[in-house]
Write a structure and sequence with these properties.
By secondary structure, the chain is an all-alpha fold. It has one domain (about 15-194): Up-down Bundle (Four Helix Bundle (Hemerythrin (Met), subunit A)), CATH 1.20.120. Helices cover about 80% and strands about 0% of the residues. It has seven helices and no strands. The chain is globular and about 55 Å long. The protein starts with 12 loop residues before the first helix and ends with a helix. The model has no long low-confidence stretch (mean pLDDT about 90).
Amino acid sequence: MTEQKLPWRPFTIPNLISLLRLGCIPIFLWLLFGPEDRWAAALLLGALGATDWVDGFIARKFNQVSELGKILDPTADRLMLLIGIFAIWIDGSVPGWVAWLALVREGLVALAALLLAALGSRKIEVTWWGKTGTFLLMFAFPFFLAGESEVFIASFFAYGAWICVAFGLPIHYWSGMTYVPAAKTALREGRAAR
């Protein structure tokens, strides 16, 4: 299977959205550690997670899929998740073991992606399971944060966080294991194409 080479096309609406999402990470950190507004930080992080699909949808709908977008979108997702989890862990709004399990999986996937790229692998497409696990965790951590806020429905968010984690973490690890055979194939095909 040969991989179709996409145009680089940096100036697209989806790439702008991905950059805006990346630019919101410092604002999230400021909200959490500056005025210590857990509710506002949770809302921003939740909105960033909820809009994860927007850039990809626009790229496909308006024929703006690009090589840069295929790198930028998952990079924004991964950075948002890693920084968000770590910050919420430091804040004390999430149990350490939950944060640790999520960070270990994310770190392993990031290292594997870098290693595969260095070895000449073709890019591995994100699977439905991978997207589902990430989606659930992108809500779990803002929910943990909102659950520790002063908002009157905080207990609702705390329960929601545990539901998202109960399904999200196992799916996240399962999806990681499904990438192993895909990585072998991608490495073989990437080297053959060179």
